[in-house]
């Protein structure tokens, strides 16, 4: 898939080719809720919530940027 960008900025300013893309992990919770997360030393950082239950988007534990720790 290609896209066309109309911008006065040079390509190297738009795309940083030196940075590796983040490895995302999916965590499947009860029901049909999926959290896309990034692995950190202290746990998992929520990047995105995928759910058909609207209440999951209001849950502060699932807000993007929050850290989830799984124990045992």
Give an overview of the whole structure.
There is one protein chain. The protein has a domain at 21-68. The chain has helices spanning 11-14, 54-58; strands spanning 24-28, 34-40, 43-50, 67-68. A hairpin with a 5-residue loop joins β1 and β2. A four-stranded antiparallel beta sheet has the order 1-2-3-4, with no helix packed on it. It has 72 residues and is of the alpha+beta class.
Q: Shape, please? A: elongated
- Helix content class: 10-25%
Structural class: alpha+beta
Average pLDDT taken over every residue: 85
The secondary-structure element order is: HEEEHE
Task: Write a concise keyword list for the protein shown above.
alpha+beta, single chain, 72 residues
Write a brief caption for the model:
It is built from two helices and four strands. The protein has helices spanning 11-14, 54-58; strands spanning 24-28, 34-40, 43-50, 67-68.
